[in-house]
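FAQ: What does the model actually see?

It sees only this:
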Amino acid sequence: MKAVILAGGLGTRLRPVTGEHPKPMVSLLGRPMMEHIVELLRGCGFTQICAALHYRAGEIMAHFGDGRRFGVELEYRIETENLGTAGSVRNCRDFYGDEDFLVISGDAACDFQLERLMEAHREKHAAVTIALSAERVPLRYGLAVTDSDGRIRTFIEKPEWPRVVTDLVNTGIYVLSPRALEAVPEGGFDFGKELFPKLLQSGEALYGLPMEGYWCDVGTPQDYYRCCADALDGKLRITPGEAFRLTERQEPEERGEEGVVACCDCENRARLMGTLSELMLDMGADYDDGIRLRGRDYELHISPSAVRSSVRIAVRSPDAEYARALCLSAREVVEKLGM
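And it is asked to produce this:
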């Protein structure tokens, strides 16, 4: 099966994390975010992939090459100007030809079973099938209102609370039939704001499928760090990079009842603790003694050193290997925040 990865955006809001790097190359547990997407696609049976690039395309191409070392066939289409989401995909029409194909962002954090989306699309003979995700606070997203059969009746873009009529949001992950792209003119054109409303008006069949699993639109530094925490907690199922796999040099120290302990030097421990406190505020952390975050099978304790500019991380868990891995992963995140 074929897939198009949208990886050409500037990612301006995420610049405090990415710097000058393209957004799909920002590290998530030691691997570029787009690398996790390629792995997800391969695991779901999408092995022919085309990446639509614009900003710093060479950096992405140098890392991924032809895709062979990632188990896929990867090619590229480079845009000299911003074509919008739908325009970028239409620019790949020589790649997808007359086949149904999947579209996904190269900077999303996701572990959906994407083959289910393709199966549903083919069963309905739809023009477009959209992966939907239930969000408790859906104000930042486009909402999709569906009937009992899953057919989309209307979209509501980034509503205020009085206009929220569903918790199902458009994730930006689509299966498209080529006929859906025939309505895209030359130049810039957007899926959510322009193409999908146009298709609805013309009577085309657009369906939405609520998906099980994790999805996060990594648009801001807060989204990024929350996504890192979710990956560390196992809510997002991804494979960590080599830097997150235990080696003799990286092995945290075991200290009996305290569990597994690691330390991170930093320039300003109070400021770093403030950043961590803000990040974990909505995650149920306790602040009576540093920061304590308790999960079903672990306790994570982060506290500043009293004698030097460093932060101490301790993890307790019945599973010793899990405690060491979580301690190492937490240290990587803390080090990034302390840079």
